[in-house]
Amino acid sequence: MDIISHLEHIRAGIKGAPFLQSGTPIRRGKAATDIEELDIRRVINRNAMKCFDSSTDCFWSKSSDGTVYVPYTISSAFSMSTILDAMKTFASETCVQFIPQTNEVDYVSIESDVGCYAYIGKIGGAQTVSLDVNGCVYNGVIQHELNHALGFVHEHTRSDRDLYVEIIWEYISEDEVQNFEKQDTNNLGTPYDYSSVMHYSNYAFTNVSGMATIVPIPDPTVPIGQRQGLSPIDIERINLLYTCNSKAFLTPSGSQMNANSNARTNYIVFTNLFFLLPHADNAGPTEFQLNGTLGTFTSPNYPSPYPMNANYLYLIHIPSGQVSVTRCLFG
């Protein structure tokens, strides 16, 4: 049984956790093993990737060295290795780094409460990220909840979701409707991501076994709801939201590849960095792992032509050092 099936098998618990205006959760369910991992805690006047209250800052601050440090504490209920490993992706792929809390006032408190849940963005003081030891301590689930704490909501609730998924309301109980309500989100110019670690699975919160609550459109067979870990677009959004310096956008021919374009690029590795090119419409990003200090990589269909006016996203991983592009050939 995979992680999502397991979590849905044991679901119930706090589920949608409706909130009073005070922010106090009204919990349902009795057993600690009744878990729904697809849960967020809401704060009034605040939403994913948008701060609606100018008197507060719902994002974590960037330090003078360009790193966004997010202090944390971890309950003694956990064996910490899985949680720490999940945090490493943020540090290696973005400018966000989770660090042990010392004297910081604002920090995430990772606890084993009933269910998997987190507040959206920074709320001030100690804010709970719950990872129930009975079902939430998996890499993708941990990254899902930590990404909530950074300011991201569920992918299927983003403002343009109706173009990409259909919500089947008849299979959603009234007290779970809030988990599917569309939000006013800043999508950061990124495409809808079926593979996002923030996306619900097809059968999340269904009230009829075997009946989907979310159906991708136009292709209902597109997989959704993975909990393996952050997708390349999840990573891109974190870097965009927090204006990370460990990212550079390279746009051949302005922002387009013309019909005769292809790309072969020489590189030199200096320090830890990756860079992105704009994402292709309706296509997944291309990932490269560059392991040597010198070398060449090519675009996937080099030297064949690309479609007219198409944008492509490349995610380049470097084991150590910064990448310096020394030559790009287009066309």
UniProtKB/TrEMBL annotation:
Lineage per the UniProt record: Eukaryota, Metazoa, Chordata, Craniata, Vertebrata
Record's protein name: Metalloendopeptidase
Binding sites annotated in the UniProt record for Zn(2+): 144, 148, 154
Coiled coil (residue ranges): none
Cofactor notes: Binds 1 zinc ion per subunit.
Keyword RNA-binding: no
Pfam families (UniProt xref): Astacin
Catalytic residues identified in the record: 145
Any one GO MF annotation of this record: zinc ion binding
An annotated GO BP: proteolysis
Gene3D superfamilies: Collagenase (Catalytic Domain) (3.40.390.10), Spermadhesin, CUB domain (2.60.120.290)
